[in-house]
Structure of NAD(P)H-quinone oxidoreductase subunit I, chloroplastic:
Amino acid sequence: MASMISGFQNYTQEALRAARYIGQGFLVTLDHMNRTPITIQYPYEKLIPSERFRGRIHFEFDKCIACEVCVRVCPINLPVVDWEFQRPMKKKQLKSYSIDFGVCIFCGNCVEFCPTNCLSMTEEYELSTYDRHELNYDQVALGRLPHPVSKDLTIQPVVGLNYLPKGMISNPADQLTITDYPQE
């Protein structure tokens, strides 16, 4: 009789424990149901990159001294720096500079260690192309100033995600939610 009572107590404890685990899982599900969706209708809505976003690299040809620090600190030795030594001036003259963004891992080491600050990260992230050879940017393409995403009037930022710093969007008309779609 005692073994039957202890077996019933064990069964009851196991059933209560299972109900508690099921309840905990259900609470997690309810928590996710109250959240807003994160889906962005991409061509019409775009996320404004955060302040320290590492996008396409911008290069200023005039500031570069061809020291090749960017090549040495790059984990994959990606920037291609072509220079020639000018004997009368006893210094290097940069001939060409290129980066293949199809291979770049956007770590930002080249920007961080550049002694002349000729490299900078932009907020441009739309680098897609059908031909991977178009991702090899020379100094002309790298020198092109990007269109700042935060200043683009065609982009409707999504405030419902609460990922932007305060004051980034000041116009109350820009206060869109995820489910608001642009009027065409």
User: Anything to note?
Assistant: Strands lie at 57-59, 80-86, 91-100, 119-121, 136-137. The longest helix spans residues 2-33. Helices lie at 2-33, 69-73, 109-113, 139-143. The domain at 51-145 is CATH 3.30.70.3270 (Alpha-Beta Plaits).
